[in-house]
């Protein structure tokens, strides 16, 4: 059927009262492309309270300077230095609040600079990842593991997922248009009731596609 | 027809001498996915003889240290400093031989660091691109234009293009598998008789997909 024929059919169904305008809108709503805003993550560190105190001093607390898209998460004033076997990266932002385990999220390019393997992982999946040394104003911490290249993912609430026909753990693709257009596969849906809708990719992924914080991408199931 | 049935058909055609092994190979060759090796470009500079002399001294000549994939092209010993309105990038490799116009190829991330607009362009298309200052051991050059983020492209000879059913200027996509798999669109075929087969993407594009120099990608028409 051609687009013309489909339009004539829908128009006819409306004109003769077979369908209501609302029904057509509902149908088109479901057919409309699924989209999501992009949040771009640079390299950053999540610290445990123990490692925070080793780096910044006993009883130290993070100083929030900016709220992040996920409820309760913030960028802190504090930064640390990553010390790898091959190189050093200074002024890496600490995000808060503190977590049970310290996790260092770097770009793939950073792993070459630091001299550690690039392990693409979802947040929290630290088993088998390389370690690194963190340096702060009060001391250093030699992490046995915890350096990851963050796997791209989409945060959403369970309701938002259900509304879009998605579920927690589903693997989708995201697509962008434009002069650096393309598609990223293996994007994991992370649905839970403490998440705000946001698609997280890292700086290199964003730059490869010429997109920035707040750009809109299409979700492809 | 199922894969089994097709295989029985081909096997039968071979056994009874309807097709030769060569004919089947030729057919499969055409049906096999089009692939190409990837060459990853970091930031680099092509200099005019005039700018080379301004930066390194009168009568200066580049010192080749490594051949590149394209015939006659080489990485030189020399490096320059990029000085933008917001920041500086040191030790940027000069590629040779000299060209009619100086061209500075940076990553999109670099454009933020330097403070210049990101113009995605094919090599040589410098009109309307931002300028920058180059600094060398002998002096500096204030370029009125010439800073580009290289548009992804595939070099090949005209014969190789014809054999693959491609032509100069054609826009294709390239696809990769793996944990950071995906697709880059708007990849321009550059076919001429001085090119070696190589798909050029930049460091950020390569890192976004977790691929490196020599990785194989599929060309999608």
Q: What is the helix fraction of residues of chain A, given as a range? A: 10-25%
Number of strands of chain A: 15
C-alpha-based Rg of chain A, rounded: 22 Å
Number of helices of chain A: 6
EC number (chains A, B): 2.3.1.222
GO molecular function, one term (chains A, B): acyltransferase activity, transferring groups other than amino-acyl groups
Function (chains A, B): Involved in 1,2-propanediol (1,2-PD) degradation by catalyzing the conversion of propanoyl-CoA to propanoyl-phosphate.
Protein name (chains A, B): Phosphate propanoyltransferase
What is the gist of this entry?
Chain A has 221 residues and is of the alpha/beta class. Chain A has helices spanning 3-15, 21-31, 49-56, 108-114, 158-163, 203-209, and strands at residues 34-41, 44-46, 64-67, 74-83, 88-96, 103-105, 120-121, 132-135, 140-143, 147-150, 153-156, 171-176, 182-191, 198-202, 216-220.
How does this structure look, described?
Two copies of one chain form a homodimer. Chain A is an alpha/beta fold and 221 residues long. Among the domains of chain A are: 1-32, no CATH class; 41-150, no CATH class. In chain A, 24% of the residues lie in helices and 37% in strands. The first copy, chain A, is built from six helices and 15 strands. In chain A, strands 2, 3, 4, 5, 6, 7, 8, 9 and 10 form a nine-stranded mixed sheet that branches. A six-stranded mixed β-barrel of chain A has the order 1-14-11-13-12-15. The model of chain A has no long low-confidence stretch (mean pLDDT 92). The interface between A and B is medium-sized, with 23 and 23 residues. β13 (182-191) of chain A pairs antiparallel with β13 of chain B, so a sheet runs across the interface.
